[in-house]
Design goal:
Blueprint (H helix, E strand, L loop, with lengths): L5 H14 L10 H8 L3 H13 L3 E2 L8 E2 L3 H6 L3 E5 L9 H12 L3 E4 L11 H9 L5 E5 L3 H8 L5 E4 L9 E5 L2 H13 L5 E4 L2 H4 L5 H12 L16 H11 L7 E4 L2 H11 L10 E4 L14 E5 L1 H16 L7 E4 L1 E4 L10
Parallel strand pairs: 3-4, 3-5, 5-6, 6-7, 7-12, 8-9, 9-10, 10-11
Antiparallel strand pairs: 1-2, 11-13
Amino acid sequence: MRLNSASEQVAARLREEILSGRRYGEMPGIYRLAEELQVNHKTVDAALRQLEAGGLLVAQGAGRRRKIALPEVLQERRPLRVAILLSDAVDRRLDYIVELQHGLLDAGCAALYAPKTLSDLGMEAGRIAGLVENTEADAWVVVGGSREILEWFAGRESPSLALFGRRRGLRMAGVGPDKPPAIAEATRVLIGLGHRRIVLLARPRRRLPEPGASEQAFLDVLAAHGIVSGAYHLPDWEESIEGFHSRLDSLFRLTPPTALIIDEAPLFVAAQQFLAGRRRVPDDVSLVCTDADPAFEWCRPAISHIRWDSGPVVRRIVRWAANVSRRRKDLRQTLTPVEFVRGGTMGVAAR
């Protein structure tokens, strides 16, 4: 009995993935595939040549990726192609993003990540239009989109769903945790501990052109307790690593806040690292994160944060994709419950 060579085994695997719809459009380059499949690049090259000889791949010239060419009968049966447009590259490692991709695949969809993120494209609608035009996808999941970006997606005929982002009132599907009540609760607890110099650090897309629902809930609680809010409490900063740290530098230079509410776990970790050796938590400054992170379980003192279950969010997106694949219009926007978890990073305001 003849054993298949390494290149034949790789070709068989890629053939199955193409015919099942898990790969479409263009095949990744040789070196990227070699890294993904953990084989030698020469083995991958030989496998791709076999698929090309069999008609499943079409060469497009030197230096260009091979195009996947499905037979017509299979094109008619191909699964829904869902592109996930991430906010940042780090999102790809988030548990619920991984769960989402697996959930879509298990539901029979072809799920892929867009080749660039919203941050890569500067959150510019024109550049994102070019990305969408050059990506072979039937539907889009947009993670953490600004109002401008989501308005652009809502204006297209192709279906799209906003995961988080400024989606309220737009004719597009959407899902995300209901954070405003929890952020309001966290703000009230801080005020009860004597804090008045409370700063909410949120990305520009959350604050512009006007504060989002969570940010407005924060400002409303300040106003209800007689705290006149302004740019100090919801500061502007350039959306970059340098811009974030520059804003932290300026905040703690003259009138340091006694409490920080920080949107997203990566920004929270960056702020925590910035404060190390400068301020004691919670003696000098209290910290709250508007998200949960598995790493928080290992932290002492325990991190004050907002917790939400990713299961209903992932299931909602998978149901939306199923409706789209059946050509059913689905524009429903849903909110999932959240919980404010008070930890040891909140303390009495420093005098």
